[in-house]
Design a protein that fits this description.
By secondary structure, this protein is of the alpha/beta class.
Length: 262
């Protein structure tokens, strides 16, 4: 049975999609896990990051699945052995369409039929705290929160924790925050050093650990995204590739799945 993880932060530009892609890639290519990536961001950044251009095509997406027009298995694309449920701009209609009672359970319902096929399902959430994010939190076992090592990316953690608390109360009492992951870190910048301390203080408030691994800033991340690739399969070595491998290993140790099933 798959462990389901939401990668979430209502602030954009914090390497949320980069984390979802490269966490999933490491689970698959370095640790041999069966992985499904689910894009529920109307911007479709996860879909684009893996090299799929579905605009104007007949490719069904998570939007059609949530509307019960397709089964989720009919939408799955293959990225080098990783399965992907794509998204595009049509998903932006979901926030105003899915307003009836029980809409927060739509994603949970559609994932039930394929949970047994994977070890890990990773959901890339939109940079907001609306119905799509609530759907992701309702089906997830846990949340990973990427934050950029800068003040304004940390400010929103309190609001995010309030949404998580609401989901725990009403739709998913087993939901936990696995940890806060620092991204775009540069130890030479004073702001990054200050945020390491500040994040520790905030983690106490929201009840979440800080991952020991920090993801260092590098332009190769942007190059890999433009090429439609994760960092492992990109042709240039980078500090971020090393960091995401270390982060994935740290995660697997935390959940007791480094050498076997959790």
């Amino acid at each position: 049975m798959a462990r389901i993880i939401s990668v979430a932060n209502q602030k954009g530009g914090v390497s949320k999609t980069t984390t979802a892609v490269n966490f999933g890639a490491n689970l698959k290519f370095n640790f041999g896990k069966r992985v499904l990536l689910v894009d529920i961001d109307p911007q479709g950044n996860l879909t684009d990051n893996l090299g799929f251009d579905i605009d104007g095509s007949n490719q069904p997406t998570i939007y059609e699945v949530l509307k019960d027009e397709y089964s989720i298995s009919e939408t799955i694309l293959d990225y080098k052995g990783i399965d992907l449920v794509p998204a595009d701009i049509a998903l932006s209609s979901a926030e105003r369409e899915f307003t009836q009672v029980g809409s927060e359970h739509r994603l949970k319902r559609v994932l039930q039929s394929i949970k047994e096929n994977y070890d890990y399902i990773i959901i890339d959430c939109p940079p907001s705290l609306g119905m799509l994010t609530v759907n992701a939190f309702t089906v997830s076992d846990e949340i990973i929160i990427p934050v950029e090592a800068a003040y304004f990316s940390l400010k929103g953690l309190i609001k995010l924790s309030e949404t998580i608390a609401s989901v725990k109360e009403y739709t998913n009492d087993k939901l936990t925050i696995r940890g806060v992951l620092f991204t775009k870190y540069n130890k030479r910048f004073n702001i990054s050093k200050e945020m390491k301390t500040t994040a520790g203080e905030i983690s106490n408030v929201i009840g979440a650990e800080i991952f020991e691994t920090f993801i260092r800033r590098t332009t190769i991340v942007d190059e890999a995204q433009a090429a439609g690739s994760d960092l492992i399969n990109f042709q240039k070595a980078s500090t971020a590739e090393d960091d995401y491998k270390a982060f994935t290993e740290e995660y697997l140790k935390k959940v007791g799945d480094l050498n076997g099933k959790w």
